[in-house]
Amino acid sequence: MTSRIIPVDLFDLVVFGATGDLAQRKLLPALFHRDMQGQVPPGARIIGCSRRALSREAFVDFALKAIEDHVAASDRPADSLTRFLERLDYVTADAAQDAGWAELGQRLAAGADRVRVFYLAVGPDLFGPICDRLAACQLVTPRTRVVIEKPLGKSGKSARALNESIGRVFAEPQIYRIDHYLGKETVQNLMALRFANALFEPVWNSGHIDHVQITVAETLGVESRAGYYDTAGALRDMVQNHILQLLCLVAMEPPVSTDADSLRDEKLKVLKSLRPVAGDQAAHVTVRGQYRAGATGGGAVKGYLEELGSTASRTETFVALKAEIANWRWSGVPFYLRTGKRLAGRVSEIVVTFKPIPHSVFDASAGPIAPNRLVIRLQPDEGVKLWLMIKDPGPGGMRLSHVPLDMSFADAFNVRNPDAYERLIMDVVRGNQALFMRRDEVEAAWAWIDPILDSWGTSAELPKPYTAGTWGPSAAVALIERDGRTWYEDQDL
User: Fold this and answer.
1) Which end of the chain is more exposed for a tag (fewer CB within 10 A), N or C?
2) What is the DSSP letter of 202?
């Protein structure tokens, strides 16, 4: 099976922060892949922009190295690479200085009727100043879009301030708040599983589902991001955006259609239905941890404080919490969320556990009957498993086994799985906001997160230590096991 390439309109894409880590690891390789697949139209331009003084030739060399480092040699034929590099241009400009902005305007002047995308791959403190410069230099056209990366604030108050600074220049339909998790193939398949099949939707409710788990686990530590991470922590860095967005897709009502606002209206309802966690309650339904020195697959690793170069920090590198959605569909169904660094495995997955059968017709010799589970894995090895009870083959009576119906996307479709950024950047160009967060979504997520942060801030309790290479502090196990459940840990999807 081959993937279908949907063409997009002619565009100019300006990447602010073009010499940074995100551009190097994700944006330039993603744009190269789309160009190689024939999705980037002839004449489209990609203009790097940062305060670093570079010639066009030096930026082309930078882009070439980024592609060589992050794209397999077999996936970068010479003719495609040459075509892509010819699209590139570079302008030196600083959000705090006048120099360079007139030159950027001159480069863009010939394409005033094109789709124009400004990708802000910079820190959030530069979002407002760059937007103000774009307006002052009259670079915003009716077909202009702006893309902003997380973090979208450190609190509801700062998120509102960011939204207001961007909103002074761009209308809401022009703003694309990117969450790369929403561009993953398996996340899109969650929509297909729920709304394109008659099998799941009738049982997608509290009458049939026992609980839901969402895990985003990393084996890496904070490493070079330690300075930023210590001002954020796992709750801000992962739960407020990625994990809550996944929760919304699991829990939302069927939308009227797949247009952007229909989808985002339903996600907003979920966020507003989250039962508040505030005050003393946070101590009962949340766990925060911080990794210590230990070992992972690559050998011995430092603890968080050693990587930070400090003797003390209250910043959490692990969070587990129990969330509840106060509506008719989900009343009484807990959502267990966890994320952390330096854990035992790298995995992002959603596990929907159904309620046990009400009565077994089999005698004890058949063995225990485990509940059905739907496991949706985002990474690694994207795919879906549906765990069912079946009879062991062979004579000699009824013996039951818990086995999965397994669909690996790589095996099922035999195509390269596009990186999330490939899909999302092309969606920006075509003007499709379905996979991007609306302002009210961001602020509703913060409205649920802020009281947890406030409760932690007033508590004398420090994050619980856990050894690198484990699944986090023992309190996270206790959080779910006191409800008679356990964390799902299958590393072999």
Assistant:
1) N
2) G
Query: In angstroms, rounded to a whole number, what is the distance separating the alpha carbons of residues 415 and 6?
Result: 16
Dump strand ranges (E) for 114-220.
115-120, 144-148, 175-177, 209-217
Q: What is the pTM of this model?
A: 0.91
CA–CA dist 190, 352 (Å, integer): 11
Long-range contacts of 396-401 (CB under 8 A, 24+ apart): 397/365, 397/366, 398/362, 398/365, 398/366, 399/365, 399/366, 399/367, 400/362, 400/366, 400/367, 400/368, 400/369, 401/367
Q: Which tens digit of pLDDT belongs to each residue from 228-240?
A: 888 889 999 999 9
Q: What gap in Å lies between CA 115 and CA 117, rounded to an integer?
A: 7
* Active-site residue, from 70, 208, 242, 402: 242
For the record, the structure tokens of 43 come out as 């004449």
The verdict on whether 242 is a catalytic residue reads yes
Residue 189 banded pLDDT, cuts 50, 70, 90: confident
Residue with tokens 């100019």: 12
In the DSSP assignment, the letter for residue 368 is -
Residue 376 CA: distances (Å) to CA of 26, 136, 194, 351: 24, 46, 12, 6
Q: Three-state SS for 200?
A: coil
